[in-house]
Amino acid sequence: MSKAIFLDRDGTLNIDKGYTYKTQDLKFFPDVSKALNLLKKDFKFVIITNQSGIGRGYYTEEDFHKFNNRLVGELEKKGIKIEKTYFCPHHPDDNCGCRKPNTKFVEQAKKEFGIELKNSFVIGDHPNDVELGRNAGCKTIYLLTGHGKKHFKELKAKPDFTASSLFEATRFINQKREKIKTKEEIEKIAKELKQKGKKIATCNGCFDILHPGHIYLLEESKKQGDILIVGLNSDKSVKGNKGPKRPINNENARAAVLSSLDIVDYVVIFDEKTPIKLLGAIKPDVHCNGEEYGYDCIEAPTVRKYGGRIHLIKNYKGFSTTKLLEGI
What we know:
The chain is α/β, with parallel strands linked by helices. It has helices spanning about 30-40, 50-55, 60-75, 105-115, 125-135, 150, 165-175, 185-195, 210-220, 235-240, 250-260, 275-280, 300-305, 320-325; strands spanning about 5, 45-50, 80-90, 120-125, 140-145, 160-165, 180, 200-205, 225-235, 265-270, 285-290, 310-315.
């Protein structure tokens, strides 16, 4: 059987200006084609979209098809095949059987394309996308694009992952679990790597919702050594540092996203508020930190004890998960 990605359309693939139907208004989010091309080898793509604008009289089914055909055609030019688009044309008050989160279209796609639902994903920017996935027995990813931030507090069902973009969602899907190690495993690995003359760089953080600032930190950290080991604060640790409402994504989901990045060699989850015990086990040659922590950061004595040094990295254009969440 095949696996599928069930995609919402407006606010997920293309920018949603509100009842989007004019072909001249088609504009994809950045990296949409890149994200889907990373997934197309293993998944079929199906669009499921509520189009209440038809039922409300804002545009016709013909208008919908013109817009959708252009969207599908543009993706095809990028090497991406949409197997089929299912749409609900009804007004929300019609109580139809096809409007998300009803599973009618997922079940139809299952029969038409031989889809195994338990290993498939529903991705969208509205709570009904998460509910659809739960109802159908799929894994779910909630996007903060489109109306995602606006409706975040309305989520009744918790998604498997919350992503800032479709591209970040692909990172969660394409995880590499063999990179995720325990403290005991990484201590042994680090010792073996040093015996082979490899230079080890480390950095740490919550990495809750991955954003450009995180990627920049990881890229700059990787430049400091042959191997990059990332210490990841556990859920318990994040709550202790950030408060009871964090993290948004659990430790396994956050580790999965980090493990998908080519610049990250290993990920280790730690429970303490700081990574001092972990650094004592790894004994890195270089530990990387944000410039705001300074060369005398809390990790410095441990790193220097074993002959390592602290490397500071400038903040990237003011990006932070806290600022992102303040918009929700």
